[in-house]
Every structure is written in structure tokens, then in C-alpha cells.
Specification:
The structure holds two protein chains of two kinds.
Chain A (H helix, E strand, L loop, with lengths): L8 H19 L4 H6 L1 H11 L14 E4 L5 H10 L40 H14 L6 E6 L6 H12 L5 E7 L2 E2 L2 E2 H4 L5 H7 L3 E6 L3 H8 L10 E6 L15 H4 L4 H6 L8
Parallel strand pairs in A: 1-2, 2-3, 3-7, 6-7
Antiparallel strand pairs in A: 4-5
Helix pairs in contact in A: 1-3, 1-4, 3-4, 3-9, 5-6
Chain B lengths: L1 H14 L3 E5 L8 H6 L4 E3 L4 H13 L3 E7 H5 L3 H9 L6 E5 L17 H6 L5 E3 L4 H13 L4 E5 L20 E4 L4 E5 L4 H13 L4 E5 L2 E3 L3 H10 L2 E9 L4 H11 L5 E7 L10 H7 L4 H15 L1
Parallel strand pairs in B: 1-2, 1-3, 3-4, 4-6, 5-6, 8-9, 8-11, 11-12
Antiparallel strand pairs in B: 5-10, 7-9
Helix pairs in contact in B: 1-7, 3-5, 8-12
Classes of the chains: A alpha/beta, B alpha/beta.
């Protein structure tokens, strides 16, 4: 375990959150809300759960983290930088011309990015393929995947859920960032997912629900895997879109489209750079 | 071609444990031997081609050489975005094997016909495309595809295609293979309809027209050198394919000829830009689309007369 001192996790999450807001401000790009809703999930994974090697990012024994909800790349990049995979100053170039950090991540664009993502509903199949091989080859490495709730609209996601359940991929864990807001409305109004946990478990997954902003609860749950032997695990993380960001966009669709203004940055007491 | 594919793959897979065969729940009887002999290198993914393609990408990331297999529309169109993003964009060594080129599944109607796949696969960066004309070319392209460290699309017919080559023929990736010599005109053909090109050349010879027939088993990269060489020495050139005239072999040759200021008669012979309203077996479908040997000869003769 990387961070045994649990009390330091909240301050790490705060730093990652600040990086996300800065990147949104500097690039004036969309998708701040969904990036903020998964900050604690990524903090728990990268600073307590995942076996990763920032100085040797392709170490064969590493746990694989598949960031399927590619549109929220700011959160991934900020976390990887915080964890030491690359310099935090690189974050300033997010979505700029010729940057190492495209709006949707591409495989190995910077160390630590395992796959290309951006189109919804692709990541879980790739993760399942990796988990299948690791299991077949008797490797101990595990595969974790972060999905958005919007991705649970995609048929391909449910194909992958069927596949992983069928093949009993207990080395595979999915965390759903269930912030209840998708591209153009609330999930319950666009394409209701409820009962979400039961859907997964009826596909032969073991599942739990967690407060996705509670670091203690996340860490505890993510250290207790697989939930059931011989089954893939799903953790439905209840989160709030825009959590800890610009207040007027909290839990609103606006958080997906509006970057912070300079006044917002002043209100949040944030400067525009990382130095 | 299916049997040539699976027997070649089985031989290679026995030697190379990295090879995996994934099927979208098709291959009844064809895969029985393979799946019995190499159960750990075989995976029926069910009727879920998008997932199968993503899973193959995951296998490739972890060091495998996956072959994914289904009927062409289901393994190139249903999962097109997975091929584009997960395989080609990430440049992974996944081999896509489609069965049922053109009208191989004739009576099953257009849901099962494969008439746009070359156009789609050709537009993807990093993709190599093989379209063998007979079982001998099939065995060759399967072996070649394993050595290519990137995405490959292999377009197969079905079963029972005759051998057009001697067993000892020397084939090369990216090089067209002349299977009938002739100095007047040339037909570039691909896939199992190449047999028709050969038959047409024999008929033409009887009427005094010497026709060169080239089997284009590699569609990407295309043998530009041979196309331009024959363009310089032939009176006319034709392409023949069991595929839409839009975006396939004919389109590719036309691009090459136009960009190299070749001034000669060139005509694409393929499936017109429409769905065929009545369906039947492969022979029937070819006749309905002017693709029998006699009809091809008529098209060629008419073109030659019009051009003069």
C-alpha cells in the first residue's frame, strides 16, 4: 500500500481537485463536472489500492487501470501527475496544440495511460480482455475500470458485463461514477438505469454501493476485493457532478459544459498555475 | 477458403501459444478440430461482436495475437468503431477474419452480403487488407498476417473455391500475382471472383484479345508498381471485384491511375450502387449484377469498342 497514513488522502484529493479546476480554467474546456465527481475514487485507487510503478509504468506486475470515461481525462491526468508519473507542469498544456494531453486520452500519451478512450462503452471490453489474459496466464495483476453512468447506456458495455460475468473474472473490478447526470439531462429522465446494482448482479457480478466522495469508505471497499470469490466486482459509487468545484454548477448539467471564469477562480482562491 | 484458413491457423497456433481464435458464435463444424486440440487458444465470445473486438484489443495489449472471426458485416460493420478506436488507433496486432465475401451468402439477402467492407477497412490507418482468391492464397495470407505487428483484415469467401495457383507459387505481401499472361488488356481481380476473371480471359483469347489477369490478394498496401507498369503497356485495364464499385479495388486503382496521369481506358467492374431487389445463390447474384464470365467479357468488349 502506497499511503498508509490515511489522513493524508484528503489533502491529496484536494490537490488533484485543484489541478482539475486549473486545467478547466486554463484550457477553457468542457467536462469539469464529471472530472470532479471521480476525484476521490482516483485518489483512493492511485494512493492506496493500485500497485503501480510511476518510474516503470509498464511494469508487467502492475495493476491495470482502464479509464473508460475518457471525456473526464482531466481527472486522470491530474491524478497521474500527482502520483509522479510525469511533471505537474505538463498539466498546463491540456488540450493545447501539440500537447501530450489530448482531451480524450490516447494509449501511453503520457506514462500511466493504459488505453485510448473517448468513445463511450469501449473500455470495459478491453479491460475484460486484459483480465481474461491475466487470469488465463495465472498472473496476479488486477484490472480496475472506471465507467461513467452514461456509459451504462451503451449496449457494448452490457455485452462486456455479460462476458466478464460468464468468465468469472474475479481479477476485474468496475467502479461506476454514478453522478446521475449524463450529457443532456439527469439519468433518471434520459434513460433510467435503476435498479443499477441489481442489473449488474443479475449478470453474475458481485456488487456494492458506496459514497463515492468518502475516502475511508472507498479505501475500505477497494481493499476488500473480490467481493465474492470467482466473480467480477462492481462498486456503484454515488457521487455528485461538479463536487468541490464552482458552486453554481454543482449537480447541474452546466458543470459538464462550462469552465470556470476568472471570478470563479478568485472565489475558489485558486491561481491559474501549478508553481 | 474457410478450411484453408482454419487448418493453417491450427498449424501456426500449435507452434505459437500467443495466437488466440475468437469467434462471434459462428463456425459450426469448421472450428471443431481447432477448439478440441487447442481449447486454451479458443474463445467463443457469443453474439457480441463489439465486445469481442474490444476483448481482442485487451488480449493484444497483454501480448496475444488474436484472430476474431464472423460473417463479414458482423465483424467489420457492427463493430466498426471498436476496430477504428481500439485496434487501429492503438495499432494492435488483432486480425479480423471475415467470411462470406460478396454474395457468398447469396440467398440470405443483403444483411449477410459483403459489398462495402473493403471500402470501410481501407479507410482505416494502420490496417493491412488481404483478400485471397483461392485456398492457396488464403494459407499464405494467414501465415503472413501473424508476422505483421499491426491490424489486419482478411476477407474470405466461403467453401469450395477452386485452387487457381500451383502449390509451389511464390507469393509476396503487397505484390499482385499474375495468374494469366496477356499483352493487350489487363484485369485486376480480388477474392474468389478471380476465377471468373480467368474464365473471361480464356473466352477473350478465343476472340483474339490477350488478357493479363492479376490476383490482388493484398488490397492495402496495393501494388502500385505493377498497376502503373501494366497501365503503360496495356490498351485497357479493368478491375473485377465482388464488392460495390464504390471504394473497393476499382476505386483504389482509379485513384492511382488519375494521380499518375495515366491515359488509358479503365473501367471498374463490380456491384452497382444499389441493393439487388431479388436474391438467390452466389451464381444467380453474380448474373443479376453482370458478373458472370460471359457478362464480364461483354462489358470488356463493349468498353473496348466505345473507347476506339
Amino acid at each position: 500500500m502506497y499511503v498508509r497514513r490515511m489522513k493524508s488522502l484528503p489533502s491529496i484529493a484536494t490537490k488533484i481537485r485543484e489541478s482539475v479546476i486549473r486545467m478547466s480554467y486554463v484550457s477553457q474546456s468542457a467536462h469539469m463536472g464529471g472530472s470532479l465527481s471521480c476525484v476521490e475514487i482516483l485518489t483512493a485507487l492511485y494512493f492506496s489500492v493500485l500497485k503501480v510503478y510511476p518510474k516503470n509504468p509498464l511494469h508487467p506486475g502492475r495493476d491495470r487501470f482502464i479509464f473508460s470515461k475518457g471525456h473526464d481525462s482531466k481527472a486522470l491526468y491530474a491524478t497521474l501527475a500527482e502520483r509522479g508519473f510525469f511533471k505537474k507542469t505538463v498539466l498546463a498544456s491540456y488540450e493545447k496544440n501539440n500537447s501530450l494531453l489530448p482531451g480524450h486520452p490516447t494509449r501511453q500519451c503520457v506514462p500511466g495511460v493504459e488505453i485510448t478512450s473517448g468513445s463511450l462503452g469501449h473500455g470495459l471490453s478491453i479491460a475484460a480482455g486484459m483480465a481474461f489474459t491475466l487470469k488465463q496466464d495465472s498472473k496476479n495483476a488486477r484490472v480496475f475500470t472506471l465507467l461513467s453512468d452514461g456509459e451504462c447506456n451503451e449496449g457494448s458495455t452490457w455485452e462486456a458485463i455479460l462476458f466478464a460475468g460468464h468468465h468469472r473474472l474475479e481479477n476485474l473490478t468496475v467502479i461506476v461514477d454514478y453522478n446521475k447526470l449524463q450529457g443532456y439531462g439527469f439519468v433518471k429522465n434520459v434513460l433510467n438505469l435503476e435498479p443499477l446494482l441489481q442489473k449488474w448482479t443479475s449478470f453474475n457480478w458481485a456488487g456494492r454501493v458506496v459514497d463515492g466522495h468518502n475516502l475511508d469508505a472507498l479505501v475500505e471497499m477497494l481493499h476488500d476485493l473480490p467481493i465474492t470469490k470467482n466473480m467480477p466486482s462492481v462498486i456503484i459509487a454515488n457521487t455528485t457532478k461538479g463536487n468541490g468545484g464552482v458552486k453554481r454548477y454543482l449537480n447541474s448539467i452546466g458543470s459538464q459544459y462550462h469552465p470556470p471564469t476568472s471570478e470563479d477562480m478568485a472565489d475558489l482562491h485558486l491561481s491559474a498555475d501549478w508553481l | 477458403m474457410r478450411y484453408s484458413f482454419i487448418s493453417t491457423l491450427l498449424k501456426s497456433a500449435k507452434k505459437n501459444p500467443r495466437i488466440m481464435l475468437l469467434t462471434g458464435d459462428v463456425g459450426y463444424s469448421v472450428f471443431d478440430t481447432y477448439s478440441t486440440e487447442l481449447p486454451a487458444q479458443y474463445l467463443n465470445c457469443g453474439v457480441a461482436e463489439q465486445n469481442m473486438t474490444g476483448v481482442a484489443a485487451g488480449l493484444a495489449i497483454e501480448g496475444k495475437i488474436p484472430f476474431i472471426y464472423s460473417i463479414i458485416p458482423f465483424v467489420t460493420m457492427r463493430n466498426f468503431e471498436q476496430i477504428r478506436n481500439d485496434i487501429c488507433y492503438q495499432n494492435l496486432p488483432v486480425k479480423i477474419v471475415g467470411v462470406g465475401s460478396g454474395f457468398s451468402y447469396g440467398p440470405y439477402a443483403h444483411t449477410h452480403h459483403a459489398l462495402e467492407d473493403i471500402a470501410l477497412m481501407r479507410s482505416l490507418p494502420n490496417m493491412t487488407i488481404f483478400s485471397p482468391s483461392d485456398p492457396i492464397e488464403t494459407a499464405f495470407v494467414i501465415r503472413a498476417s501473424i508476422k505483421i505487428n499491426g491490424p489486419v483484415y482478411i476477407r474470405l469467401g466461403k467453401t469450395g473455391e477452386p485452387e487457381l495457383h500451383e502449390k509451389t507459387v511464390k507469393l509476396k505481401v503487397g505484390a499482385g500475382c499474375i495468374i494469366h499472361e496477356g499483352k493487350d488488356i489487363a484485369i485486376f481481380s480480388t477474392g474468389s471472383i478471380t476465377k471468373t476473371a480467368l474464365d473471361a480471359a480464356k473466352i477473350l483469347k478465343r476472340t483474339g484479345i490477350n488478357c493479363c489477369v492479376v490476383s490482388m490478394h493484398t488490397l492495402k498496401p496495393l501494388d502500385k508498381f505493377l498497376i502503373l507498369k501494366l497501365a503503360k503497356h496495356s490498351r485497357a485495364m479493368f478491375s473485377l471485384e465482388e464488392h460495390s464499385v464504390i471504394g473497393g479495388l476499382g476505386s483504389t486503382i482509379a485513384e492511382i491511375l488519375a494521380e499518375n496521369q495515366m491515359r488509358l481506358l479503365f473501367r471498374r467492374i463490380g456491384v452497382p450502387d444499389r441493393f439487388t431487389n431479388k436474391v438467390g445463390n452466389q451464381e444467380y447474384m453474380r448474373i443479376k449484377n453482370q458478373l458472370s464470365a460471359k457478362q464480364v467479357v461483354t462489358t470488356i468488349r463493349k468498353s473496348l469498342v466505345e473507347f476506339v
